[in-house]
Each structure stands twice: as structure tokens, then as C-alpha cells.
Amino acid sequence: MAREVFLKKLVKDCSKGRSDARRELYELYASRFMGLCYRYAKSVDDAEDIFQDGFIKVFENLHTLKNPDALEAWMKRIFVNEALKFIGRNNTFMMVDYSYAEMRPIEDFGVIDKLAIEDMTAIIRRLPDKMRIAFNMYAIEGYSHAEIAESLNISVGTSKSNLHDARVYIQKEIAKLNIIKCATAHE
Amino acid sequence: MSKDLNHIESELDAKLKEKYANYSVQPDEALWNNVNSRVAEKKLLLSQTKIKWLRAASIVFALGFLGLLANQVVQYYGYQRNEIGDKTLSSPQYPSQSPTDSGGSPVETDSAVTEIFDQSASKLKVDSVRMTPNFQETDNTKAENDAGVNTSEMEPLASAEVEEQQEEQGNLEGGNRHGPVSSAPARPEAVGHLPAIFDRASVRSEESMTGGGPITVLESVEGSQEIQIAGSEVPVEQLKTMEGKWFAEGFASPSVSYRTVAANPEFVKVALYDKSYFNSREKAQLNWAYGLNGGYRLSEKIKVKTGLNLSSYSIKFKTGGKFFEKKSASEYTLYTSFGEALISLTGVDDVPVETVIKSNIALHYVSVPLAIEYQLLKHTAISFGVNFESLRSQELNWESNDQNVDSDERVTQISGVNKRSISLSFGVVHEQTLFNNTSVLVNPIFLSHIKSPSSSGPYHAYPNSLGIRIGVRRYF
Hints:
The complex is a heterodimer of chains A (187) and B (476).
Chain A: H1 2-15, H2 19-40, H3 44-61, H4 71-89, H5 110-114, H6 117-126, H7 129-141, H8 145-152, H9 156-186
Helix pairs in contact in A: 1-2, 2-3, 2-4, 3-4, 7-9, 8-9
Chain B: H1 5-20, H2 29-93, H3 109-117, E1 125-129, H4 139-146, H5 159-169, E2 201-207, E3 214-220, E4 226-229, E5 232-235, E6 246-263, H6 265-270, E7 283-297, E8 302-320, E9 324-326, E10 331-336, E11 339-344, E12 356-375, E13 380-400, E14 411-415, E15 420-435, E16 438-449, E17 459-475
Antiparallel strand pairs in B: 1-3, 2-3, 4-5, 6-7, 6-17, 7-8, 8-12, 9-10, 10-11, 11-14, 12-13, 13-14, 13-15, 15-16, 16-17
């Protein structure tokens, strides 16, 4: 209840253009959404561009938010959209190595647990654009294939295919990483 | 054993979601400065754009208003000038007519016409009518005309007499639309009756635009009808006119309301309240008013009207913790300048003085206006009125900056508001004819309560509103 009231007031104050309220909102969500931008961008510079554009969009449109309880979900949608727009503007398609497609998915979830989040993020960021978007939106953000397809103006089948390729790519990267780690440990 | 592929994937996704649930990266401090400056920049740009548009709109509005005013003034004084000119022109141009043998005595027809038609302050041009010179007036008619009575007793000449007169007058030039041709500025031949609408009209002569000699122009306030001339009906073009003494009107009005506040003398005696009050944090609120009125045209210049109007006064302002008074364990009275609101606050021992309460007070009235309109220009009148207002409902919507001083019930009724109130109004009524007997009204109006809705509380507030009534008026 107290948090809801606080958020409502914060949103209202931001909508009125109060700089201190904007700062408060920024402090509250900056690191979380910077993390999101990191996952979608290929470089730190790109992530920072998406992050800034996202926050500007948030502040410009905050007055349209009818339900402050949904602030975080609303902001997430804005940041994801900004990321998609950014990637669309700087589209550099990478060739997909379909030799990955025959690989089996990871069955030992302990690998995921043991993997440092920075390593996992680095793998995600190395994914080709379309795979990265599909993987982030589906596996982490929890969007459906239909929503992804609509956002990217592609078919649901293409979205599924992109996700599958992403999984295989990540699996191979994790395997490679484990091999390297094992080799380092044996040495 | 290998697990089902979908199951594995969904478990993998769940692991990833869990891993990334609290994933965060601290952004560089410089990013905030960029974001803040770009937001401020955009806001400034937006406000500058808004200001530019507002300026442009103001200029257009001012020019439009000045144009309208100039048009009105030109029309008004232009008419005055024409009217003076007509008086000097019309008499000598009407041929004197000899007495007839139909029992009438000699009549100075020029002056008769002037008397018949030149009694009005009319501004509306009715039509240009070419008329035949065969005109006769009886003694009775002359007498009645002198008294401003309907000219229904004007009688046509016998056809032989007409011909005789026409011969006497010589050349017949130009053409009448439906009747004989006249070479001279004509006199109306009143066959049967001349409609009452021309009882008060002025007459003047001017050169015909199509050649064929001078024509006579009738000008009237009352409107146009059909006039029988030389035995045939000449339909005069219907003009947009306002006939009828009674009228009904309906309007809707966006308005902004605010309050003027003065200290309650009773409180000033016992407490150190300011005698005058100013709250810079008040904000005018947009409201709507509606109404149906009926009225009567007492004269060309004056109208009176009454009706039933619905209006609202809604004012947003900040008040403080000092206006809270504990009534019971969980109930507080919040004194407002419009009355007292009972607020339930559970688990609150005291409301700190520094607590700021944002409140929005709305008073809804039904009122009976008594208003008078005085016509200043052709389409413009000023109006004064008294409104007898009766309170329909009143509510307070409040919000505290202190999380402890909070309640789920944000809307509460205000008690102690006087059910009856009186307000005065002043406005400018611009009336533009739509079609016959119907006009559209644009009426900027200011309303101010002369009686405060509440006689209790530390301050007396008087709600005011400024609005633009837009409506339709129909004359009967």
C-alpha cells in the first residue's frame, strides 16, 4: 500500500515536470534497466544509447500512465521497444551457422547455475541480432512468440526459429566456455 | 534418459529468468545528466512551441474580434449615414400626386411616404423593389399613417386613372419585374394591404444596378413578406431576420472557476487569521454549465430572460494540517472555506501542522437566472443578471503528502454549505443569424457569488467563474 502510494505520487510529480522526482525515479530503476539494455545491445555504448533514449521516452510519456502500479512493466516495454528500434536502426545481420541446429539442448541445469551472470550476459550479447532479441524477449522477459512476432513484424514461426537458433548458439558457447574452464582447471 | 525437449526448454527459461530477476548494471553518472538535460530541453522546446501557438492563436483571435467589431461599427454608422441621406433624398424624388376623385383629398404623398416608412431604426435591407407610380392614398390612410398605423387602407387607383397618370408622367423607362414600368422613383402601390412588417421601415432611392432608372429600397427590421404591387404579387426575397417577441435559447458553456477568499470576521476576532487571503497554489478548474432560457423582447434594444441553468464550480488548492481538528478517535474535521469535511483517519494520533492536503472542491448548483440584455450594436449586446442558485451536491477530493495521514476514502461530502446562494453575472452576447428566427449565440460571461457558500470556517470563499456560453436562440 505504502509503495503504491509512493509510486503514484512519484509518477504524478514526474508528470508535473519536477526534476527531483525524475531523479528519484531514475535512481529507483536505472540499474535494473541498464541491465536490460546490456542484454539487448552488442556494446556498452549501444546499451547506454538505448538506456538514455528509454528514460527520455519514459519521462515524456509518464503522464499517459493511468495505473502507476504497472509502472515497472510499462517501463520495461518502453526499454524493450527502444532496444528494438535501436537494433533496427543499426541493423547488421549476421550469418547464422546452422550447424548448431543439430545440437541437443542443455539438460544439466547446474551448468546454468554455475555460470557467472556476466559470462551468460556476454554470451547473449554475442548472439546475432534477431536471435538475441528473440532469446531476450522470450526466455528472459517472458513475451510470447505472438508478441515477439508482432513487435518485429515477422511470423510466429520465424520467431520460434530464431529462439531455437539462439538456444543452440548459447548451448555451444556454454560448452565452449566449460571446455575452456575445465582445461584451465586441469592445468 | 533424455527429457522432453519442451520441458527442458521451459525449465531452462525458468532458470534464466531467476538468474536475471535481480540483474542490474550501475549506469555511469554522466548518463543521468544527459537524460535530465535532454528531457528539460525537450520540455522547453515543447513549451516554446506551445507559447508560439498560443501567441498565434491570440493574434488570430484578436484580429478576428477587431474585424468583427469594425464590421459592426461600419455597418452601424454606415446605416446611420444612409438613413440621414435617405431622408434628404427620398422626399424630392417622389412625384407629388394629385388628388383623385375617389373621395380622397389632396395628399402630399412625399411626406406621407416618409411618415409611413421613416419611423424605424432599422438596419436590415429587405429588398430592392421597383414600383409603379400609380399610387393613391385616402384621407383616412393619411391620418392613420400619420399615427403610424398599418397602411391596409391604401387603395389602388382604377385602371383608367392609372393610365391617365402614366400618360401625365410621360416616359416610362426600365421595367418592373411584374408590373408596369416606371420612369420615376416610384411610390408603392398598396394593393390590398401593405404588410405590417413595413409599418416601421425606411425608404430610400438609388440607381438601379441593371439600368432602367432609380429604384426604391425598403429597409425594415421586421423581415420580408410578399407585397402586392400593381395588382401582382412581388415575392420579396426571404432574408435572415428575427421576428417575434418571445424567444427560447439553450446553451452549453466551458468555464474556469476560482475563488476569492476573505477572512471570516468571527474567526478574526479570536484568532490571528489574515484579513485577506492569497493562495498561490490554487488552480482554476475547467467545468461545464448548461441551461435553457426563455425570454421576451421588450424593445429593439432590451430583452429580458429567465430559465433553468446547471453550473459547477470546481477549485483545486492546497490546505494544511492546521485546519484539521480531531473529532473522535478516528475522525477529523477538515475546515475548508466552503464548509466542513469529516475525514476518517484510522491509527492517526495527530495531524501535523506541516501536513499539506491537496484538495479539490466541487460545488454543483441549479440556478434560476434573471437577466437583461441591452443591444449595443447590430449583433452585440451586453447582459447583466442575478442568479438564484440552489446547491445540488458538493464534494471534497483530498490527498495528503504525509503517508500517515491517509485514508482509503479520498472523496467526502462537505457539510455546512449553504443550500441557497446568489451570484451576479455580466456578459457580452454576440448573436449571429443562422436562418429565419434562429440565431447562434456566443456569450463570454463572468459569474461571481455575492454570498459565500459557507458562513462557518476561518475563511469565506466566493466562487467565481469565467466561461463562454455557446448556444442557439429561436424567436417566436
